[in-house]
Amino acid sequence: MENKLISGTQLSKILLENLKEKINNITNNRLPKIVIVQVGDNLASNKYIKHKLKSCEKIGMLSEHLKLDQNITQEELLEEIHKLNNDNKVDGVIVQLPLPNHIDTQVINETIDVNKDADGFSPSTLGKVMLNTSKIFPATPFGILKLLEWKNVELMGANVVIIGRSNIVGKPLANMLINKSATVTICNTKTKDLANVAKKADILICAAGVAKLITKDFVNKDMTVIDVGANFVDGKYCGDVDFDQVIDQVKLITPVPGGVGPMTIACLLENVYNLYLEKNK
């Protein structure tokens, strides 16, 4: 079983060690800095932010957690973002999602300075990702690509099926894979005959947000499966793939936890470092 696993925990440690070494070698300038903006007290967000701050500390990157009241107005939040945009000592800004319902997430993402867009969610960044001219990438798709390349999974000419069409995973990932000369099909949970469409793939990436959606009927023995799901069922954390049912039926698979999740944080911090380099050319 071990030789089938694609360990994001293992690769993220390698990436973070590389970043740590690069940051340790900065001698004639200030260190890179990220600011994480949180609105309210979402428990899942608290957990994710804790992991991000811990990773920053490990690699020597400066970090700040700006926690704002749940009832802050959109205008007040935009004012905070403008302050960060104008702060020359800040290299990366992320606004932790989800935001309260009275705040328009798209407006917030569009307001973050593209030169500080650590999450890679701004329309300008996403446009550059599509055109293959971007220096940074949405962190989860970036992490998925790194996992595939680390395991020497051939992308050129590969038949890739992505289940999930979100602006932060499915759509940017499709463009990034197309730019690697893969043949990409984007599906969703309403796709007709979904299992048969998925079963023909060389690489199946599931980011549908539906626990254990992917069963043995969706896979084949030569397939690489990337599980982006982060679901809680009966208090237990699980992905979109029914792991126990699928693992013996595929070539390679990411576990949940320990697969895509750790890579998202490592790639987010790599984005911040690259934004820092661009600013200090």
From TrEMBL:
<feature type="domain" description="Tetrahydrofolate dehydrogenase/cyclohydrolase NAD(P)-binding">
    <location>
        <begin position="138"/>
        <end position="277"/>
    </location>
</feature>
<dbReference type="InterPro" id="IPR036291">
    <property type="entry name" value="NAD(P)-bd_dom_sf"/>
</dbReference>
<dbReference type="InterPro" id="IPR020630">
    <property type="entry name" value="THF_DH/CycHdrlase_cat_dom"/>
</dbReference>
<comment type="similarity">
    <text>Belongs to the tetrahydrofolate dehydrogenase/cyclohydrolase family.</text>
</comment>
<keyword id="KW-0560">Oxidoreductase</keyword>
<feature type="binding site">
    <location>
        <begin position="164"/>
        <end position="166"/>
    </location>
    <ligand>
        <name>NADP(+)</name>
    </ligand>
</feature>
<keyword id="KW-0511">Multifunctional enzyme</keyword>
<dbReference type="GO" id="GO:0004477">
    <property type="term" value="F:methenyltetrahydrofolate cyclohydrolase activity"/>
</dbReference>
<feature type="domain" description="Tetrahydrofolate dehydrogenase/cyclohydrolase catalytic">
    <location>
        <begin position="6"/>
        <end position="119"/>
    </location>
</feature>
<keyword id="KW-0658">Purine biosynthesis</keyword>
<dbReference type="GO" id="GO:0009086">
    <property type="term" value="P:methionine biosynthetic process"/>
</dbReference>
<dbReference type="GO" id="GO:0000105">
    <property type="term" value="P:L-histidine biosynthetic process"/>
</dbReference>
<comment type="function">
    <text>Catalyzes the oxidation of 5,10-methylenetetrahydrofolate to 5,10-methenyltetrahydrofolate and then the hydrolysis of 5,10-methenyltetrahydrofolate to 10-formyltetrahydrofolate.</text>
</comment>
<dbReference type="Pfam" id="PF02882">
    <property type="entry name" value="THF_DHG_CYH_C"/>
</dbReference>
<keyword id="KW-0378">Hydrolase</keyword>
<protein>
    <recommendedName>
        <fullName>Bifunctional protein FolD</fullName>
        <ecNumber>1.5.1.5</ecNumber>
        <ecNumber>3.5.4.9</ecNumber>
    </recommendedName>
</protein>
<dbReference type="InterPro" id="IPR020631">
    <property type="entry name" value="THF_DH/CycHdrlase_NAD-bd_dom"/>
</dbReference>
<keyword id="KW-0486">Methionine biosynthesis</keyword>
<keyword id="KW-0521">NADP</keyword>
<dbReference type="GO" id="GO:0035999">
    <property type="term" value="P:tetrahydrofolate interconversion"/>
</dbReference>
<keyword id="KW-0028">Amino-acid biosynthesis</keyword>
<dbReference type="GO" id="GO:0006164">
    <property type="term" value="P:purine nucleotide biosynthetic process"/>
</dbReference>
<dbReference type="InterPro" id="IPR046346">
    <property type="entry name" value="Aminoacid_DH-like_N_sf"/>
</dbReference>
<dbReference type="InterPro" id="IPR020867">
    <property type="entry name" value="THF_DH/CycHdrlase_CS"/>
</dbReference>
<comment type="subunit">
    <text>Homodimer.</text>
</comment>
<dbReference type="GO" id="GO:0004488">
    <property type="term" value="F:methylenetetrahydrofolate dehydrogenase (NADP+) activity"/>
</dbReference>
<keyword id="KW-0368">Histidine biosynthesis</keyword>
<dbReference type="GO" id="GO:0005829">
    <property type="term" value="C:cytosol"/>
</dbReference>
<feature type="binding site">
    <location>
        <position position="230"/>
    </location>
    <ligand>
        <name>NADP(+)</name>
    </ligand>
</feature>
<comment type="pathway">
    <text>One-carbon metabolism; tetrahydrofolate interconversion.</text>
</comment>
<dbReference type="Pfam" id="PF00763">
    <property type="entry name" value="THF_DHG_CYH"/>
</dbReference>
<keyword id="KW-0554">One-carbon metabolism</keyword>
<dbReference type="InterPro" id="IPR000672">
    <property type="entry name" value="THF_DH/CycHdrlase"/>
</dbReference>
